[in-house]
Task: structure prediction
Amino acid sequence: MKHIDPKLFYLIQWTWGFPINFAGAVLYVLFAILGCRHEDFGYARITYVPWNAGGVSLGTFIFMKKDHPSADWTYDTKIHEYGHTWQCLVLGPLFWFIIALPSFIWCNCFDGWRKKHKVSYFTFYPEKWANAWGQKYSGMRMRHPK
Result:
């Protein structure tokens, strides 16, 4: 899973990507206080949270729905969200505008349109890119890439 020296990875994430990682760290602490389960995944830290959403990546912090009934969904979502971690490394503060905002809008405003037109969530560039980089940098293959 390692493609860059960890010290350099975290230095870049916590300087160039500071705002995203700081937001992730705040949520991480809050969910840790609530007793949520965590695990390491490559250079990221996954927290399993009690929400109905799928996953969110804020720099090195990934938040995913706990107890999802599909092991394949959980497996693929880890890889996908890890791809967003690497996008943050490269884009830093631009991540909010290039990835996070378009992804949020695509996820929350176009669900009906995607269903009506039978368009996969993963056809939109931030998600397709996250799948590709998640697989590349985790060294794992998604079970059901779309």
Remarks:
- Helices lie at 6-15, 18-33, 71-91, 95-109, 111-117, 125-138.
- The radius of gyration is 15 Å.
- DSSP finds six helices and four strands in the chain.
- The beta strands are 37-41, 44-49, 55-58, 61-65.
